[in-house]
Amino acid sequence: MIINLEDEHWKDCLIDKESEDIYRVFKRQRTQLPDDMRLFLDAIPVSDNIEILFNHINNQRADPGTQRGLYFLKTTLLYSLDLFRTQYLPLTDQGERDILRRVWIIIDWAFDGSHLKTRNERGSAASKIDKNKRRKAANTAMMDKQKPSAIPDLLVFYDRYEFCAVEANKKEYDDTKEKNDSSKLSLICKQMLLNLSYNSPSLQHDLTIVGLSISRMKLTVRELCNPEGVVCVSKITKELHYPVHMLEWRSKMLDLCEELWILRMEIERRFIAVCTTSKGSGVCTLKSCFQTNI
After folding, report:
1. Digits of tens for pLDDT over the chain (294 positions)?
2. pTM above 0.70?
3. Which string of DSSP letters, residue by residue, matches the chain?
């Protein structure tokens, strides 16, 4: 599996055609935001004044039943402004779990009203503790580096179909931790891809699994696919930041909302493809990879 496509060493392992085919996959045309959502974002005033921004957005109509995209934009943007109003932002001493719960709850909101569901896999921390306890109980030598949990922090799924995994880091600029977590996230995504490919073999080279890595206020979007059946390729496609100051709120928050909704549309399209080409019919019998309560 290629984790870093930009690493020059991979060129020695692949023939030219393989490299061209792999790069072509990641240069495909991106899904565009719906016109009504684009107009909504473009109309937001260029300002760093909370009251001006809040009042403008709050006055926009967005029906939660028929205009789900607009409703997501309205509620998410108002919520982020309120984090500044209540002085939750800028961050002080908040921990990883608190930031995931308060700031990145917008990932859950992006999938509200969709066939796809999100779930916080709280077994992640418990899984790590349990494995480490069993290792010590077996008189395994103590290690400085404990084995990480194999369960992601958040899943995007439908029944036993899993399409996206989310991992939260404790520090934004811990290079070693970030590299370890990116490798872990890539392996999780690979298992999810293999699972879906087994269920829908005709889609093996068309499926893409999304991995989202959260490092405090940074969101890294990683995509993994198996374009030619030779290797799985993982590539960072976006790095986004939740605003930490009102001066950057408009540029960063609007980009973040746009990317989350586009991810929703693309994952929904893959879900529909899997459902319509899966083997057999009826209730999904595919074994899930990481859901802890199935």
Report:
1. 555 555 665 566 666 666 666 666 556 667 899 999 999 999 999 999 999 999 999 999 999 999 999 999 999 999 999 999 999 998 888 888 889 899 999 999 999 999 999 988 755 444 444 544 554 544 444 444 444 556 888 999 998 899 999 998 755 555 555 555 567 888 899 999 989 988 888 888 889 999 999 999 999 999 998 876 667 888 888 999 999 999 999 999 999 999 999 999 999 999 999 988 865 544 555 666 666 655
2. yes
3. -BS-TT-GGGGGTS-HHHHHHHHHHHTSPPPPPPHHHHHHHHTS-S---HHHHHHHHHTS---TTT-HHHHHHHHHHHHHHHHHHTT--S-SS--HHHHHHHTTHHHHHHTTTSS-EEEE-THHHHHHHHHHHHHHHTTPPP-SSPPPPSS-SEEEEETTEEEEEEEEES-SS-HHHHHHHHHHHHHHHHHHHHHHHHH-GGGTTT-EEEEEEEETTEEEEEEEE-SSSS--EEEEEEEEE--SSGGGHHHHHHHHHHHHHHHHHHHHHHHHHHHHHSSS-SS--PPPSS-TT-
